[in-house]
Amino acid sequence: MEVRQVEITSHLNEFEEKFERTLKKRKREEDDGNTSESSHVSVHSTNEMTSRAPKQAVVVLNKLPTCKISALRPPTPEQFYSEAESQSSSDSDLHQEPGENSSDSDVSHTKTRQKSKKCAKTSSTNNNSELDPAPVIITSSLATYSNEITRTSAEVPQQEISMDMTVLARKKCMRWQRGKIVEIIRREDGRLKYKVCFEEKGKSLVSGHHVAFDTTPKLEQLFIGARMVVRCQVNKFRFLPGILAELPSRNNRLRFLVFIDDHTPVYVGLPLIHLICRPLENPLDDLPDTPHKSFMAQYLKDWPYPHLTQYRPGQNLSVELNGKQHPCEVVQVDCSLIQVSFQHNQQKEWIHRGSTRLEHMARFLEMKAME
Q: How many angstroms separate the Cα of 340 from the Cα of each of 79, 134, 186, 253, 361?
């Protein structure tokens, strides 16, 4: 009996020891498992989701830098390209003279700025050259309405010329004055002549295309190529004949561009314009045979895509004066015009950017004619 009790006691002791070891072992495992349980579960769940989710192709788009995009673009010809300018129609009866802050609407073009920088860089490295590299020559779209080039003087309603009407009449080639119609004479061939008595004294017998209305014209009467007389901006009693070359738009800051018969371009407002009463069918027939007449014929032929050179203030160029080319410097740019200063006498003058007086434009037109 005692032996049996001893055996049972030993078995109980062994069981308690095993039970204690088991508890300690489980406790250690639980302590170690708590630190890795979360990561284990997440990895397990991720692997499980990955194994279950269907495989899909993923496209990653990366934005290329500007320098790489520019390198991939095709090269642009250095001497000629087309430029589509912003177009807008608006009318203005206010005169705006070219100012110091005048800016060129075409110079804002990105390609032009890049080419100007190239020209400036080339000029700085080449000190032996007196003139800057040849500028970019563009073809600008200046038309605002389609009927700017389709209308003619015959389609514009004509106002009657009556006795005692105050008009502007030609006294000399480049001198028009205000006067009054004192007599209307009909020739045997049916042509009408008008005797004008000028305010400053003197009389003259002139044809209808040498008489202009003293009133301000209506906008619907104006078109590219219209023959007109412009009041001088400095002397209000002086009037000069010319041809309309641009109608108001955002490109020219809502002004009219007129080419005076001596090739002088000028931006004016509506109150300074006076239409010719009875213009010739071809307004160029009223111009003397000079280079300006050839220029105007080419200008009207190319309209609304005239050729223009691109210049920047401070750039050197060569301009014709009295039959000879003279070095000049660009003072400022005003839309289709540039103001240059001649180096030999510091004389300043406004010139159209498509004028054949510019050496670069003259060479370009010669090359184009040869082609």
A: 22, 16, 48, 21, 15
